[in-house]
Amino acid sequence: MSRVYNFSAGPSMLPEAVLKRAASEMLDYNGSGQSVMEMSHRSKVFEEIINGCESLLREILNIPDNYKVLFLQGGASSQFAMIPMNLMKKHHKADFVITGQWAKKAYSEAQKYGECNVVASSADKTFSYIPKLDSSTFSKDADYFYICMNNTIYGTHYSELPDTGDIPLVADISSCILSEPVDVSKFGLLFAGAQKNMGPAGLTVVIVREDLIQGVDEKVPTMFDYAIHAKNDSMYNTPPCYAIYICKLVLEWIKNDIGGIDKMYALNQKKAKLLYDFLDQSKLFKGTVEPDSRSLMNVPFVTGDEDLDKKFIKESVEAGFVNLKGHRTVGGMRASIYNAMPIEGVEKLIEFMKKFEAENQ
Ligand code: PMP
């Protein structure tokens, strides 16, 4: 068996220990005589899985008791509509910072439900930085303030959170969840698709302050009402059972194998520094993001020559490094180095880049 180093932006690598454990439990989970894929979501054995998953997430992210954790389907993209449906209640208004395609999509979807203001954007420089925010430009009566914390395509990340006062801060943390500690109490709502740092695609996690999900308009469809999912402990209908099980294994890996979120963060900082330090001194490769906006998870870079970029991507695949091609809207390369990418993967990539640089002076 030979596994590649997979730099995909998502779905992406899972820890090998998690895959091995899932394989060993595939036919008979914990003496139940069934796979997790086959069991009733109402069974005691599955209840233990979903409850265990939630309590581990609460413990690792230190989620306060007045926040609900929801395990939903529909991908992070469904949240672009669910958030305004549930949160645009008082003034039907929200503020947005446009830092890339995902923030833009959230903004476009929310426009169907109310007035949306763009308080800042980094579109002028292909979203290569997080714009400086001036709180005097924020709407005083917004129902929420929306950011995309880590911009998967462009490789940017907020180094400082906007101070929105009493206005609930809502953040898409799809590509940085569990990569760093996060002070949940500073947010009204956090959400993430699972397929980068939590498990397989099909699971979306929403962490939301309890008081924000009350009194939703009765026209909101049942399946899009956070309060319904909260009241039913994410079991209003069949949840994405297998994805929740893998997520629980990933959380156990972070807690027991890595040693918790602070250790995970330190490891991610170390991996990213190796790559950024290499890019900063390279005569061929160049990082595309302004230094104070750099993401620890997604690292885009270019050679400045499209043909050379193509050659690099082709040769990287032959050398066992896959999915380094940049997003189709940006070009160049992007190395996504999520939690499950081992440090050796980054070291080997750098070695390969050095060799490529020497051969292509
Ligand atoms: N937000 C971010 C930051 C993303 O990276 C992605 C997908 N890569 C999405 C939202 C959309 O997620 P999904 O495909 O689960 O709808």
Automatic annotation (TrEMBL):
**What name does this protein carry?**
Phosphoserine aminotransferase
Q: What GO cellular component entries does it have? A: cytoplasm
The record describes its quaternary structure and partners as: Homodimer.
GO molecular function, a single term = O-phospho-L-serine:2-oxoglutarate aminotransferase activity
Instruction: List modified residues, type N6-(pyridoxal phosphate)lysine.
Output: K196
Q: Where in the cell is it found?
A: Cytoplasm
InterPro entries membership = Aminotrans_V_dom, Aminotrans_V_PyrdxlP_BS, Pser_aminoTfrase, PyrdxlP-dep_Trfase, PyrdxlP-dep_Trfase_major, PyrdxlP-dep_Trfase_small
Cofactor(s) this protein cannot do without: pyridoxal 5'-phosphate
Give EC number(s), comma-separated: 2.6.1.52
Supply the PROSITE patterns for this chain. AA_TRANSFER_CLASS_5
Q: Chief localization class? A: cytoplasm
**Which UniProt key words apply to this protein?**
Amino-acid biosynthesis, Aminotransferase, Cytoplasm, Pyridoxal phosphate, Serine biosynthesis, Transferase
- Which residues take part in binding pyridoxal 5'-phosphate? A76, S77, W102, T152, D172, Q195, N237, T238
| Group of enzyme by EC | transferase
Describe how the cofactor binds: Binds 1 pyridoxal phosphate per subunit.
Q: Which organism is it from?
A: Massiliimalia timonensis
Source organism superkingdom? Bacteria
Catalysed reaction(s) here are: 4-(phosphooxy)-L-threonine + 2-oxoglutarate = (R)-3-hydroxy-2-oxo-4-phosphooxybutanoate + L-glutamate; O-phospho-L-serine + 2-oxoglutarate = 3-phosphooxypyruvate + L-glutamate
**What family name appears in the similarity comment?**
Belongs to the class-V pyridoxal-phosphate-dependent aminotransferase family. SerC subfamily.
Function, as annotated, reads:
Catalyzes the reversible conversion of 3-phosphohydroxypyruvate to phosphoserine and of 3-hydroxy-2-oxo-4-phosphonooxybutanoate to phosphohydroxythreonine.
Q: Where is the Aminotransferase class V domain?
A: 4-349
User: Quick one: which residues bind L-glutamate?
Assistant: R42
